[in-house]
Design brief:
By secondary structure, this protein is mainly α. The chain is 54% helix and 6% strand.
Length: 147
């Protein structure tokens, strides 16, 4: 064999080796990327399921609290006549007028219902409590113009 043929064979083998190395390296990285992609998808699915469960639990807690607010006048620990209670909902839950059923209201009681072990007043509810405690409550009469 002459040297030209030998050089051509060596070049062909070298080119094939380079393409083979490129293909195998690319295949290795693509497989690694697909595995990473699948792992990330599984992590995302787990996180979404946890978020979904958390949202459902939070929604149930809120709905339970709203239900308890409206049911509060009929619970045994409610110290007033349920017919004298008026549900407001926000920013406070109830206003009770003790004595209203007999036509002789004696006072006005503002009630906030809290469910759950870690329940705390919101900043607005604390401010309203402070206003009531400071006597910053007044009466106004509005009479629309008559015909």
């Amino acid at each position: 064999m002459d040297t030209t043929a030998l050089i051509i064979i060596i070049l062909v083998v070298a080119i094939i080796s380079v393409f083979l190395a490129y293909y195998l390296t690319r295949l290795k990285f693509e497989m690694r990327f697909r595995k990473w992609q699948e792992d990330e998808r599984q992590k995302w699915e787990v996180a979404m399921e946890q978020a979904r469960k958390g949202a459902i639990a939070q929604s149930r807690a809120v709905l339970g609290g709203k239900f308890a607010e409206q049911l509060a006048p009929y619970l045994p620990q409610f110290n007033y006549d349920p017919t004298e209670a008026r549900f407001i909902g926000s920013p406070i839950d109830l206003i009770v007028f003790p004595g209203l059923a007999s036509g002789n209201p004696q006072e006005i009681v503002i009630i906030e219902v809290k469910t759950g072990k870690a329940s705390q007043l919101t900043p607005v509810e604390r401010k309203i409590r402070q206003l009531v405690e400071n006597g910053m409550v007044r009466w106004e009469l509005i009479q629309p113009p008559g015909d």
